[in-house]
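User: I'll paste a sequence; please echo it back and then give the predicted structure.

Assistant: Echoing your sequence first, then the prediction.
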Amino acid sequence: MAYIAHVPLEPRCAVAQWENGDKLNVWTGTQVPFGVAQELARAFGIPVANVRVQVPATGSGYGGKHTGECAVEAARLAKAAGRPVKLQWTRE
């Protein structure tokens, strides 16, 4: 029998914005905002106190929104671009 992975109702999405070079604001759908904040802090070598993860009202996750890969990718792109970035993954 083939493995079927659970997925959230909507594709993963994040908006990332850097302030003053070392403070990071991220809006993303996650079930563990404090865990995502720690992931972001580790990825960028900044204190977790400099990371704010905001979770807008979104659809269910069914256990599929427990990591911050999309948020980290959006933050990397925002840092490189020097401006806020919205990233939305597709199901493909």
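The beta strands are 13-19, 23-28, 51-54, 85-88. The mean pLDDT is 91.
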